[in-house]
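Thread: Newbie trying to understand structure tokens

Hi all, I'm a second-year student working on a class project, and my supervisor (Dr. K.) asked me to get a predicted structure for one chain before our next meeting. I've only ever worked with sequences, so writing a 3D structure as a token string is new to me. If someone could post the tokens and maybe explain what I'm looking at, I'd be very grateful. Here's the chain:
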Amino acid sequence: MNMLENDKNASQSPRRNKRNEQFKGIAVKSIFKKMTMVCLMILLRASMMPADELVWYDEFDGTTIDPAKWDKPEYNRRQNSNGPDGWWLREESFLDGDGHLIIRARRIANRNSDNDPYDYATGAIRSYGKFEQKFGRFEVSCRLPRQPGWWVAYWLYSDSVGNENGSGEDGTEIDIFEGFGWTDEVQHALHWDGYGDAHQVIGHTLTMEEMRTGFHTFTLEWYENLYVFYVDGIETWRTDAGGVSKVPAYVKVTGELSTESWAINTNWANDPTKAVWPDSFIIDYVRVYELDATVFDAPTPNDHLAYRKTAGASSDAGSRYSARRATDGNISSRWQSAPGAPQWLTIDLLNSYLIHKVRLDWAAQHGVDYRIEVADSIDGPWTECIHVTGNGQRGSVTHEFEPRAGRFVRLYGLQGVDDGGFSLYEMAVYGEENTAVHGKADAPLAPSPMVLQNYPNPFNAATVFRCHVPGGRVRLTIHNLAGQQVAALADQHVSAGDYAFTWTADACTSGIYLARLQTDNATVLRKVVLQK
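---
Reply by user tm_fold:
Sure, no problem. This is what the structure looks like when written as tokens:
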């Protein structure tokens, strides 16, 4: 896990917010849920194409941890010659009988021959020797602890992490998330080349309001050439640092507690003597999927204007088929509309461009009759670039036309190949810059590595986000609670300083949204309430 510490004994909710495809093959927790699942399965099979395949999971039903899936290591995990030790004990990992895995932390009597007045204990489970996989989607739904002094994690490990050859391809410790009971900050991290002098590590920090309130999902999509991390369905980090591991890894769900100086401060776990024990890390499920495609085939950010820009649509077939899938650069993901026509997909390029070419990578439900349009406003008026009739093929279709100026680009589908709607892997947009603007804050914020504030909040028409950033590439986007991106306010390279951006939410309904401020090294999420 973290802090250069090897797995020395490696031989060793509001309830869950399910994605539609996750119902397949999962044991639900009541007769009512089973009936609901059957109905949903019928609807899904009728309306959606197959997605990633669920290959291994645990819903933590029953009263006993499944020994066919997990073992529970027990040893003095965090020894301290100058203070209490932090043990992994089997009895600290158990099921609550209500569909949850509990990993408990508490103070215990001294377990060894030193003179410590007491020790600490927490638990861990791992799929070592029972399940491992390279590549795929790995997800956990959990509620973080509430007390300082310990940390928890969902991570992947292989014995070859100890190899020292300058590359992570032969084994990387992948910390899908590490979280705490005293702060709303979590982190993703990668470790490779062992844990000695050759050790290499890279991480990404995420701060999210109310992170310790309720259940959250933490997800890794592990491709042959890229790691992509998500929290509650929102992408928080992507990297290929070290060279992506090509070695199967097993799953670990753990608590950790150390009383050494590096751990008991506000840079990490904080002081366990300040905690009210016992405390619990509550896990709702662990799920592992095989991906439709193991290679993330993404253009570089400069390859086309629409790459990773905000996209919206008239409809979609669920979060796995949302509009943003058509601009993520991944040809294995796609936007899928609801049945029928017309349907549309709109992309906000953030600035105005002279657009002269659009490439559409159609899936099976391709458009037959459609228009490419541009506009300066999301509300139009829309200018037609080209009207395509009689398109008879799926796959990549490129349309070139006279340059048209606009910030927004829209695919407007009039007729599909059948009544099932439209399905598009990628929409690439090409053109030259026309005008570019960004806002600089009138009044500076207090110095901070990363600050995101907005006023008013709640708001009913528009709100102003003020942020302090360290410089480099900055992205500020707005997401709904399903993880769908609904607006992009910034995607640009800036100098260190204070900036302001306005979100006018005319096209959005009342509700709770998340603003995501992202740099190369950190992410901040802020809850925003729209009241119309």
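A couple of things are worth pointing out once you decode it. The first helix runs from residue 31 to 47. The mean pLDDT is 84. Feel free to ask follow-ups in this thread.
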